[in-house]
Specification:
It contains 17 helices and 8 strands. Strand 3, helix 8 and strand 4 form a beta-alpha-beta unit. The N and C termini lie far apart (48 Å).
Amino acid sequence: MNTNQRLSTPFEIMNLPFEIMNLHTQQLHQTGVSLWLDNITRELLNKGTLAKYINEFSVTGLTSNPTIFDHAIANTDFYDKAIHQKVKAGKSGETLFFEIAIEDLSRAADLFKPVYERTNGLDGWVSLEVSPLLAYDTDSTTQAAQRLFKQAARPNLFIKIPGTPQGLPAIEQAIFAGVPVNVTLLFSAEQYTAAAEAYLRGIERRIDAGLYPDVRSVASIFISRWDKATMGKVPADLQNKLGIAVAQRAYNAYCQFMGSEQMLRAMNFGAHPQRLLWASTGTKDPHASDILYIRDLVAPYTINTMPEETLLAFADHGETGVSLPSDNSAADQVIAAFEKAGIGYEQLAAQLQKDGADSFVKSWNDLLAAIDAKGK
């Protein structure tokens, strides 16, 4: 099947032969890429769909964000009964939402527990984000991360903290406190490196304090938003090229950081390296391949968390591309071409991070409004 072709409904794909669905995802998994699902709904859990993805599509983890929960709660009736019950019990707002989210993610974490145990904690994770309203509030983010992790009571649950300048100290403090962290809203190699250094500072503080240093973390680089932001602003031969180039730079920074003297020292004390995660991997351009950011982001010891539609597309007609190169020469040429076309790399990275934080705030407010409306 042509990789630009899209199946019209998930139903069509779910009824493909088992061998086709399993082959493509398993081949990608064998390259050293972990396939995670960027979605969570009560429907996925109740109907056994998530279990199917785990068993047949090599899915080994799951991420969530405010936009995902907003769509799930506002556009389905799967949460209506729970919302009414919690409202009657005097719950509302963020308190009510986090109870609902933790219920879903706890069930998902339990489904992934065998993967978590089999991989010794490398895979099998789910993620819950702190309130986006705290993106620029270090102390409140730190407190929320510790509270939510304790409330969930699952060892394989990441707390998502944005990699904003104000989020970096919260990442360090959460790691020091023993809270596993998914650093979100990273858009460049430089932002990744800052997040990785914050993670390592937390680990080094645990080592210095005589604490067990094996606190897991992932760093999430958002890819497709680069290409969406430059769509129609650059020559046709550059379209959909910037996201992959940014990923290549980030991957090489990742490899260098993992081989650094600081990281190797921490590993000698029992720490595991923070892993790199590709986020925002659904294709935004309808004229581009719907598996673009899966096929072209092959790199061992990384994670690709993909929307459900993208996962299903890859299960249907996925192909595994060559591994990302070990140097930045090709990426630098692409980024230089964009600079020449008027797209500033550093400026756009900062803007995308700000826009991402603002977008999650909007989804958060919409989510709370939907809960309030359904609770009446």
